[in-house]
Structures are given as structure tokens and as C-alpha cells.
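A sample copied in:

***
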Amino acid sequence: MTATGTSVTGRIAAMIFCSLLGVPVISFGASDSGPGKALRAASLDGTWSGDMKCLYDPGIWPEDQCDQSWVITINGTKIEGEYATRSKSGKETRSNFNDMKFSALRRETNEIFAAVHSGDDEDGHWVESWTFTVTLEDPDHLIVHWTRIVNNVDMPLNKKGTKFSVVEMGRLVRTPPTAH
């Protein structure tokens, strides 16, 4: 049993049951004592901004820098926002991911947002997955790990960009900061 009186096995069973029902969010509490109490009580809701550094660049866009500037807004189980990609010549292109439908899984200071979608373009059918894995460093700083993976299903395997992944990580700042 944990300090809250719930067995670990019971928590796992609840997570499995909820996932089978398609419930997008599961949140379990923690002990109400100790130095992390305030951090566990802090909200992830709000607008966060900053730069994320590229950890893996597939080399598909040689004219662009891999690092990007991000502004994300978290509201409960919803995440949306925009990012800016800079070319090596200094031109900035802004894109948003507001049309993607994310599922969310939260436990205390950490949350995972995941989305999978698909569509068709000039290269045929594609399937794309995004994940944001976040944790509160403190109430005003969010550590973010972002992954994007794309499968251009109909493209020949020998064509550049048929399958790729991009991975970034950064520390975003709450805008405006919370009052302490």
C-alpha cells in the first residue's frame, strides 16, 4: 500500500481499465507531506515559451536549423501552440499544432501528451505521431521532451524523407510567471 492507501496493483489495474474504455487522462495523487508538496500541487496549466534544442535531426531540411522556438499552452488535458523554425539565412517560419487531438496521461508533476494522425498529400498517404513529455522543474519552469515521427507510407523507401523522426528538448518558462 502507498501512503494514500491505494495499492500499486490497484493503480495499474485502474490505468488498464481506463485505457480500454478510451479515457484519455489518468491522474493519481501522492503524499501530502514532504518538500515536494508545493511542486506536486502546482498547475501545469498556462502558457510556456522558450527554445528547444535539437537532439536528433534527420537532415531532411538542410537549409533549416534544427533548434526551434516554442510557445505552448496547456489547459487541463489540452495542449496547443506554435513553433518557429529558422533557416540558416535567418528567415523564420511559424507553424502551429492546434488541429492535433492529443491524449494526456498525468501523474503528479509529469504529463505526457500524445497524438497520432494521418492524411494525404502530393507524396501519398502519411501517418504522424507527436509526443510532449513534460515535468515541472519548479512552478515557473517546464522541462519538455518533444518527439515527432513520420511515415510517408506510399513513398518509395529509397526516397529521402520516406520515414523520419525529430527529437528536441528544452526548458520553457511560464508566461507570465506565477506569484510566489
Q: What stands out?
A: The domain at 43-175 is CATH 2.40.128 (Lipocalin). The chain has one domain: 43-175. Residues 73 and 122 are 31 Å apart (CA to CA).
